[in-house]
User: What shape does this take?
Amino acid sequence: MLDYVRANPVRGLQVKEMNFLGISAYYHDSSACLVQDGKITAAAQEERFSRRKNTPDFPADAVNYCLQAGNITADDLDRVVFYEKPFLKFARVLTGHIGAWPFSFSSFMRSMPLWLDDRLTLPLTLKEHMGYGGKVCFLKHHLSHAASAFLPSPFEEAAILTADAVGEWATTTCGTGSGSVIKIDREILFPDSIGLFYTAITTFLGFEAHEGEGKVMGLAGCGRPKFMKEFGELAGIASDGSYRLNPDYFSFYGKNRMYSSRLEELLGPAREAEGPLDERHADIAASLQKFTEDVLLKIATDLYERTRMENLCLAGGVFLNCVANHKILERSGFRHVFVQPAAGDCGGALGAALYGACGLSGKSRPAAMTHAYLGPEFSEREIERAVAAAGLRAQRLSDGELAARTAGLVADGRIAGWFQGRMEFGPRALGNRTILGDPRNPDMKRLLNDKVKHREPFRPYAPAVLAGRANEYFELLGDSPFMLMAPPVRREKSAAVPAACHDDGTARVQTVDRAANPRFYSLIEAFDKLTGVPMVLNTSFNRRGEPVVRAPAEALKVYLETGMDALVMGNFMLEKKNGKA
Amino acid sequence: MERLKRATRVVFLAARRTLVPCCLFFAYFLAVGAMAALDRVFHFRPRRGAPQKSFWEKTGGCPGGMEDAAEQS
Assistant: This one.
């Protein structure tokens, strides 16, 4: 029997302008999203306000921002939609404690007060934090992901695949969407989870859970999949891609680490956090990446064969894996793939709000999501005030001068901060809270690392390329506006943009469209005029371990405290002379 | 009156600070422990990693729409 989930109007409800607030919280990447009259008005992650990366706290500031952006108060909200069902999740957590008894004692004592205080009493929490006393709806976690993937996609009909660590019980689901109706028909349940599998090996490699997965994806490009036989031991995979983890190697039940000692017998000793990285670690990462790609590709291919649809929508933290996404697009049979830019849990808020809007107000689906600029923006005055407060002076430039001057600086090998318009929603910086570099400079990765980012040397930097010119440099099928595809770099072009190429010959590409971000487009166009290369390096505007900057003061702080050479905020430019601001 | 209120609140907070961990302690060792014992005797969750034809589960017949979503209000 199908899990038939239909977004239909509730009888008797008047169709009027309605406000739906989606919230995701209490696991990681808390966020809020406001949908008004079927349109996405605002969305933001709480970490950008609290400055605590991946914070799981209630997104009080993000909610406030959304209400302000929508010019409403909490009283004007028709519904708050939470991105998962807390009681179902609580049951799963409790089962975990039972499974690990008595070793789960300390985590039980730590987590239960949190559950009792606010997670199981969300309506009271909403009342306390935002004075909202109206109705609250709860969607299943993976339905929120499915809604975030399908409802803002450009497709009238599509297959839907979601995968993350775990929601309530489901960890991977698939189904279809048509109009504003979503059907989820299959799922894989906890503790079998490709997301947890990836996270467990990530922690085995000495990186942090929910933070280090992207690093492992980068590390994978430097290794070879020599451990595939050993990885075959870790999970059974059916021909349709469904899988079952071998519980002998993992411990997801309340213990201090996510893997058992048997995993160390199989793969060798685990790496200490910040410990030295060697070839074995890179090979384990490469094997993990290949294993994950194989599983996802099999699932997607099976989904294609069952549905014979042309379009596929993806969401869930696993689909932040841009290397796997591109392989799905290349090989699964689907012709078009839409990946929700906020594919992780923060996007659950967007899915919940959209599902509520389509379901309750009877509004048709929103226009296709062509950009992710849904966060706060700052006026010229606010920027001027922040610059003055920092004791600095900025030069005001016209739009044309701004693009040409910034492009010139970047072409000279300098590193520039680029702070424009509304902040991006989701983990990627897509041209509004961005640090720019020259992709032609073979030393640029090292410069960016030494002067600003202080990242691990094996991690790649992404190119932002003019949409119409991407194919000259990359074997990209379609567009990649959200930096969620990693196609191979064309062999004959890789020498022209060495800083944009990863060790495995791929690049995490962002295609920039003039309509979606005219100012960023003009900048790259100006860089192209100067150099003949239609792309710049684009990395998120933050320092290692910090969230991406939100406000001008935060951007100025990074500018002043790192080796960044210039900062462009709105039409204002600040430049350091001899390394001094 | 105000003093009494304040004193009552202090007593309440102190009691809560002691009572909640105590309750959780007993809940863990008695209730969760009993369930863990049953789980180990009856093996409610036997599962291995051996390959099968498919590991997909069909989703249960949960009705659609926001009515299903409205768990609390």
